[in-house]
Amino acid sequence: MVTQIIYKTILASVILVLSLLVAMYSTLIERKVAGWFQDRHGPNRAGPWGLLQPLADGIKLFFKEEFMPQSADKFLYILGPSLTMFVALLTSAVIPWGPDLVINGETYALQVADINIGILYIFAIVSIGVYGIMIGGWASNNKYALLGAVRASSQMISYELAMSLSIITIVMMTGSLSMREIVAQQQGFNWNIFYQPLGFLIFLICAFAETNRSPFDLPECETELVGGYHTEYSSMKLGFYLFSEYINMFISGAVMSTLFLGGYYFPGLDKLGLSTNVFALVSFMVLFTKITFFGFIYMWIRWTLPRFRYDQLMRLGWKSLIPLAILNVVITGVVILLNK
Amino acid sequence: MKTLTNRSKIVSNKRMNFWERIYLPAITGGMRITFGHLFRKKTTVQYPEVTREFSEIYRGKHVLKRDDEGRERCTACGLCAVACPAEAITMIAAERKPGEENLYREEKYAAVYEIDMLRCIFCGDCEEACPKEAIFLTREMVKADYVRNKFIYGKDELVEPMDPAKRIDVSKRQTPEVLEFKKDKRYKHNK
After folding, report:
1. Confidence at B189, pLDDT banded by 50, 70, 90
2. d(Cα A204, Cα A199) in Å, to the nearest integer?
3. Distance (Å, whole) CA B46 – CA B53
4. Mutate which of A29, A32, A36 to disrupt the B interface (most B C-beta within 10 Å)?
5. Which fold is adopted by the domain B62-190?
């Protein structure tokens, strides 16, 4: 029991550090990819291939002046970015990162908490995520920040509906809310994306909206709202906001891989006859590759599509995605009933 | 209607069909285009290591030429200052004293010759106006500075060095065609 507790603590810290590291280098990769998409090189001055760029950015953010508007609500102003960061990091707890490790005859699950309502947990946490942005925007006492916050909250609430509806089909098919169970049912090439392509598409679009990524980046929309909800933020508080966006990208990539792309499974990998621990590590690499793929999709879309207008965003969410998701639920239900 | 260019497209207001309305084919099309750009040749010039190639007849900082014997060609006629659309050139003329024949070619020379590099638009009109082939634009750039005063270049910066090895080559800007053009008396400044 004690070893399990120690192990879980270590695992949680490793995942924490990993998501921070990934978020850090996502900023570099984002800028690199942006450069390549625009026939440029991207940052390449700080260290070889610009590898020290995230470090330089981090140091820069730390040494910037901590500015707080005079009329800001002091407590909420600090709570906003903290909450955003906190919530962004919480989601990773229920994601199964790989099959079990066996050390000295004892099994260690590569998952911080295998709770039987994993999906529900993720949705609960993601819903709290909007508070960080809303509180930050409200506390700044700035019209741009407030507008950004209002947009963020309405956008996230609207798209959460379609998102959860698209997940209901997965729950109906697997009959479980546990992430581990969902992954286990996708063993081999039995991935959910082949059974739920429409659900996957809806989930993907909603994930873009939930992480405030382009083309749904209205909350921080530089061209209209200066900086949106983080207009008044500077120094590491701004860093937290920007950072949590990349953590959210990483985590949502992990959730999408887990729910639709077979998690850590890859066809033929279990037939290679690898030892348990090596298999676990290779499986983790497989999951990581899938997450990276999603990260690239995020950036690819960002440099391809222009931003949605607010009314277009609402129309897409309420009049297209939610009816489609409900239709998807109905079709799935009928098919399950017929196959009984 | 005849179009000026062949790039114009006829637009229509027809209703979009189903595939156009769900936008997904258009989005994948767009993504294919952006993906193609990943492997294109990068257009960036990596500045300190690589410098952009200059044209042979680049119009940069001016030079006041000396003739083959090292005498200043400028005779302070002021035609360049008149021709200058930005009014960047000012000069004060002086008379050549006996014994200075090795310094100035004509009896009159420019004691002060100043070009305000912040006003100059590098059009090359001064060069075209000059009847003595004294002023030319070179491939050298005007360097950046912190103070505006330093951009008023005097003779110390403009006159080319005496040392034959350090002479500035302007043969690319002084082609036979240019010389022929300068003989054309139809233009006011050539009279």
Report:
1. low
2. 8
3. 12
4. A36
5. Alpha-Beta Plaits (3.30.70)
